[in-house]
């Protein structure tokens, strides 16, 4: 499948591995893919981030991802659903952190977070990753990028397809993007304006 990746898409994947290495993560997650996309210079992804104001709010986006990791990778919708059942996730997090330390549910860059958290078992390594396995969530994003490209009748998979796949996949990355105005629809309109 990687033979269909453009130079930018390959740079995103290798950049995600570098992001994981810098963070001391055992595996490459969908968050690392997003951070790598944010680092791209030029191209339609950088233009889309700029047009939607995401570039100027990178720190806010990273903070939203960190907050979700602190909640064990739970989205705000999941947190609200549990609140409806009488479970206060913030209270649970506080109690866990009292016992195990701040960020215990986040895994401190390691562990097995949900929704593309920073963990992984090391099984099913992605060929390009070399020594860092991709989490199932990150693999699904890469697979979804192929579907996005095919759906658009594009011959190759670009960074823009990876970004749309991240925005389409339910979880903390799509939620954080949406909170910053980068929904699937908004990204698609900016990157692929009608002719």
UniProtKB/TrEMBL annotation:
The keyword Endoplasmic reticulum is annotated on this UniProt entry: no
Gene3D superfamilies named among the record's database cross-references: Clp, N-terminal domain
Signal peptide: none
One Pfam match: Clp_N
Entry's transmembrane regions: none
Keywords: Repeat
Name of the protein: Peptidase
Stretches assigned to the Clp R domain: 2-195
